[in-house]
């Protein structure tokens, strides 16, 4: 599909009074310690969150494609020839299956407001188009938002090998839905025919002395020709396509290999999990619904709370909204509350989640605090004291208070990945220093704080949630044998091995601590057998990778069975159940130290 819109490149001249050089804008980010794709995800998601429509979830999507055939021809027809006299490398980039990285959001305002930087917005109108496409260094004007002066958008141009992007947006503009599409580039400054240029370029239709965005039908036709994500009827949002994307490299042994689209997609999904998880949780305002695709294939993103690596941070984050479950750094002067801190201890993962491992901000188990502002996006992870027990991890969250959020915003560099005190003074300096001291002082294992007399209980109790998910592969209502127990004998009617005649776990398994001893307990419901039947608890230790160990480690010990109705206790792994006995019994298992136990139950006829 060939679309003719009359779009051409327009290059910005250096003004007589001086102008900002394009390469200076790109280099505002400095040399971040983060991977460029991580910086890209963080910046793009922050922009999307700041533009979220009230009461709406935000669809935040990443697609990676290699262009070829008619799709590549459509892009070449739009982008080429490049700006006169500039050395963007655009022609070379568009010759051999270039990669385009597309980031889109829906459920956001889109890039609204005036199209020209010299036209002031009306009262109450957001000038998002001008701030994103034309201006640099202007405050976003979003209360408690994640961004500041808009320097971070330089990462979009930096990831492009030719420093070119295309923005496609649908917004409400003065009572009417409007589609807008424009190209932009931030190359290096140059001189052409005796005229100096800043290195900034825009691709659109000529409107007086500037290149203007394609509007409505022209914008929609070009977006379709380029294969950009569509908008539903009445839907607003923004799509940004990064041309000839540099996906980075991965180290294999002593060398580095360029990331494939699949590797890049998986890495970006991983960095979403680590940096955006507070906005991905159920129940949060303007929840982020993230997706990543490469060549049409989706990367599966697990729910953050379902992953062992992120669970302590998620639990700590939820404690920040519950009275009595968080701490506040003490401060007498205003703002008296600068932020909230909470910490949770859980069992360390047996093995690393393959997706989360790709962009993990630290090695080993968690002993860190996720710091964030009111925007609920992770700034960084600060390391604390390691736990003496390698099977235990802890995670904490510090979140700035509403009254103090602006001071933390002022402390962030353009990449928003730290709180820096240099350049701060007065209240801002005091707030940031107090927060850092408080977090550092409290980043230690809970069991260390509790003292030696209560170390055992303090270390074991938080493990219950972790072990409850792994102990016993039996869900409520299913056979307690889980298909792995031994069965023998028979009786009249249904056999003991049939589905309706098997015991089933109705509560647990879960880890409890009684008199300083850790026990795995599960409530088992017995069928109404007509003859006496022997039920045997069969625990086994699960080691790394989910493999059951028999004989390699100390075996778990079945303490016995307790009747739920009469509290009668019967010692040992075997329980003889007569037709007159209670139906509900609690089995207690003492696991080896720091082990995960899987529980199976088998049945056999007994007289």
Q: How much is the radius of gyration in Å?
A: 30 Å
Instruction: Give the end-to-end Cα distance, rounded to a whole number of Å.
Output: 81 Å
| Portion in strands | 25-35%
Structural class: alpha+beta
What spatial form do the alpha-carbon principal axes imply?
elongated
Low-confidence stretches: 451-500
Q: What level of helicity do the residues show? A: 10-25%
Continuous helix count = 15
| Number of strand elements | 28
Largest sheet: number of strands, sense, barrel closure: 12 strands, mixed
Q: Mean pLDDT across all residues, rounded?
A: 85
Could you please describe the fold and organization of this structure?
It is a single chain. The protein is of the alpha+beta class and 607 residues long. The chain is built from 15 helices and 28 strands. Strands 1, 2, 3, 4, 5, 6, 7, 8, 9, 10, 13 and 14 form a twelve-stranded mixed beta sheet that branches. A hairpin with a 2-residue loop joins strand 20 (504-514) and strand 21. Helix 2 (36-50) packs across helix 8 (261-276). The longest helix is centred in the C-terminal third of the chain and has 17 residues, at 426-442. The radius of gyration is 30 Å and the shape is elongated. The model is unreliable at 451-500 (pLDDT under 50).
Short description:
It contains 15 helices and 28 strands. With 607 residues, it is α+β, with helices and mostly antiparallel strands.
